[in-house]
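Example record

The entry below shows one chain as it appears in the dataset: sequence first, then structure tokens.
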Amino acid sequence: MMGHQTDSQDKLFYSFNLEAYVPQQHLLRGINQFLDLSDLR
């Protein structure tokens, strides 16, 4: 519908730094060294 939107809309895109949220000693950081996910999009 045409007209003025009265409700607020959340952002579609936002900045997120995963490095800041995953601890250095987390298990996934160790696994990441052995996985090659470069073919995935």
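Notes for this example: DSSP finds one helix and no strands in the chain. The mean pLDDT is 82.
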